[in-house]
Amino acid sequence: MSKLARTYACRRCGRTYSHKEFEQSRFCRSCGTYLLSEREVIKLSKRVGEAVKGRVRGKASEWNRLPEDYEVRKEQMKFIEEASEAIKSNEVFLGSAPCGIGKSLGSLLAVLPQLGENKLLICFRTRSQLHIYLKELRALERNPSAVSLFSKQDMCPLRRKSDLSYFDFLEECRRLKENCESSTKPYCKFYWNINRKKKEAEELALDCARKILAPGETVRRMSRQGFCAYEALKRVLDRVDIFLGTYHYVFNPAVREALLKSFGVSLSNVYLVVDEAHNLPAFSRELLSDRLTQNTLEGALRETETFEHDALPSVQEYLSVLNAEIFQRAQEALEKEELKQLDPQKVGDLFLDQSGASGSEAAETLHEYGEHVRETRRELGYERIFSYNHRVGEFMKNFFEKVGTNYIHLVHRDWRDRIVLEVRSFDGREITDSVLQQARGSILMSGFLSPPEVYRDLTLYDHGGVHLKEFDSPFPPENRLILAAEDVSSRFEKRTDKMLQKWRDYIEAMSEANEGNMAVFFTSYGLMHTVLPLIKNDRKKIVEQRKTKRDAVIGQLTRSDDNVLFGVMGGKFSEGIDY
Predict the structure, then answer these.
(1) How far is residue 63's CA from residue 72's CA, in Å, rounded to a whole number?
(2) Would the pTM count as exceeding 0.85?
(3) According to CATH, what is the number of the domain 483-568?
(4) pLDDT tens-digit map of 468-490
(5) Residue 187 Cα distances to 40, 164, 177, 191, angstroms
(6) What are the residue boundaries of the structural domains of the chain, listed by start?
């Protein structure tokens, strides 16, 4: 008996193709949708129908409905089913899901049907991912209420405060709010209005949550009515379903506790979605790490010339030891971007020999003096409340307390040729494990969680209650060309002139061989700024800087096709953006 010829179909427009046509192109000629076999299309349609009906009875089933005219993607329904089953059992779901399968919407459809009286926290490393979730939430047939926040400083309607450091801004904000309570000028009129018109402010904030507005839109709308959006949204968090924010809101202990208090729940009543979760191990290690720059130490020395205190002679002595024995010696001995490991015990002994105080005692004294500086600045009405000595004391406390095999202590020159003292964590599970285990259910997902076993081991101590899954890419392999150059390295000791020329040659060759916009991502800012001056081509250069705006870059790439974007892996433009 001869086999029936296999046919393929577009799940969006219904056009069918022969096997030969499928081999020529796996995408629909009419609408560009990825083709599936007719059998897969029929099977997928049945599964979508089941999802629309809802596996959960009652009110929760309304959440299951896909957005109208939504194109279900290959592997997406499988993602929803696997993630749903995992979090239903209060497990940690760790899914390596390639770009293009629709995991953002998939994660929502996995959690929302079983949300009930619980809350959903969606977190991501950079703000770029936020817009994707807001778009998906608005498209759902039944919209939940959702609040998303940027930092308090970024959402402040008093634009004149934008030039302050974040610490100084928080101090100024606190002072203006306290003045509102005591009716003392100057005060923040936006916070004052929230207290005077509490009901109106909260109703407006809830309306923004129901409309699922982005932070910028919420700020514009609420500030026009005279209210602080950040404070008003915090006050209604216990009445919304979903919160969206960066990793800090979930994994920074102090920030998380404040958020959960406003949310009105404990972590056991929260479902978590962690997007681009391949960044989570590095992020958590960074939270446990600390660094002290040469600029901060110099600022601390200058500070002692202005603010008197009983402990001032000791403070000056401790700073001199740190400057002369660590920073100045490193300045003489280290090459650019070279690093050296330090023994915290020997550094502590150095303080004891030179000043008669242990490193921990010196840290406590510097911290205490810094508190005095901050309080004096506050009393005298300084706009800047920050104390360099407080920061040095805080770092030294971490330097001497964070010891053992999970930490390494370093001194090095950065790419700006300045000395930096660091304590780095090797194991971020101290941060992530308790959060993921205590949550009602967690979805960790990314296109780069492969192999998932490695990322499980980097985020969790125990392998129990963890569901691992890798999903196939929706795109054919021939549409994704991957080339690897084996004769280049980003390692510092190999960055010779010859090696840098190879980097330049590869980049210029790729630029010459391809039309349209191009992106080049480096392993570090230092390497990027070293290679950049060597590159010569006719393309317009867009270089990622700290203040580079996402919308400006997308606008430039849209207006012309002869640009080259230079960025850093893990930076704001390397992920979470639909190019």
Answers:
(1) 16
(2) no
(3) 3.40.50.300
(4) 999 988 878 777 788 899 999 98
(5) 64, 17, 6, 8
(6) 1-53, 132-288+430-434, 291-425, 483-568
